[in-house]
């Protein structure tokens, strides 16, 4: 994985609207197989090339939630980071991710509610210049005062 900053925590007192973090990862056949094992989602569009050739995708694709998991990694490891609690996430899948694709997962601070320790984050994943997933997350951020 290729990260733009070290892992850790940015407490709510240090967050600013516009802050952004990302990671990049090549999605491999092994990733797809492991995700199928863990999630029990063995849809053949992910695992069987012959089957997937006859779908609208014309080939195997990664699980959408595997891609969404990269957003979770940025939130849980970088922004805000360790100690963050997910409260909600919206996702809109825009295009498929295929084995071998380099996915860039980006998270940016949109709004901060200091009184409730809630942070709204814009989330998206790209393959090259193509947005493959977009959404919004709301999290409970760690605080220097409480954690």
Query: How are the strands of the largest sheet arranged?
Result: 1-2-4-5-6-3
How many beta-strand runs? 6
Summed over residues and divided by their number, the pLDDT gives a mean of: 95
* Main structural class: alpha+beta
Give me the strand/helix succession: EEHHHHEEEE
Biggest sheet features = 6 strands, antiparallel
Q: Classify the helix fraction into a percent range.
A: 10-25%
The oligomeric state is: single chain
**Rg measurement, Å:** 16 Å
Number of helices: 4
Rough outline:
elongated
Show unreliable segments. Answer: none
Give the DSSP E fraction (strand runs of 2 or more residues): 25-35%
Distance between the termini: 28 Å
In summary, what is this structure?
This protein has 4 helices and 6 strands, in the order ββααααββββ.
Q: What does it look like?
A:
This protein has four helices and six strands. It has helices spanning 29-39, 44-47, 49-53, 64-77; strands at residues 2-3, 20-26, 85-93, 102-113, 118-127, 130-140. The chain has a six-stranded antiparallel sheet with strand order 1-2-4-5-6-3, covered by helices on one side. Strand 4 (102-113) and strand 5 (118-127) form a beta hairpin. The longest helix has 14 residues, at 64-77. It starts with a strand and ends in a 7-residue tail after the last strand.
List keywords for this structure.
147 residues, alpha+beta, six-stranded antiparallel beta sheet, 4 helices, 6 strands, 23% helix, elongated
């Amino acid at each position: 994985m290729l990260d733009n900053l070290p892992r850790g925590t940015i407490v709510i007192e240090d967050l600013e609207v516009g802050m952004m973090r990302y990671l990049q990862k090549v999605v491999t056949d092994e990733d797809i197989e492991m995700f199928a094992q863990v999630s029990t989602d063995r849809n053949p569009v992910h695992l069987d090339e012959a089957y997937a050739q006859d779908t609208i995708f014309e080939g195997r694709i990664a699980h959408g939630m595997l891609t969404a998991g990269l957003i979770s990694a940025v939130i849980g490891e970088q922004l805000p980071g360790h100690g963050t609690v997910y409260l909600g996430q919206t996702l809109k899948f825009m295009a498929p991710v295929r084995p071998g694709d380099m996915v860039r997962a980006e998270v940016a601070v949109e709004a901060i509610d200091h009184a409730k320790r809630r942070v709204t984050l814009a989330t998206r994943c790209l393959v090259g210049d193509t947005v493959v997933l977009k959404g919004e997350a709301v999290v409970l951020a760690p605080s220097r005062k409480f954690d």
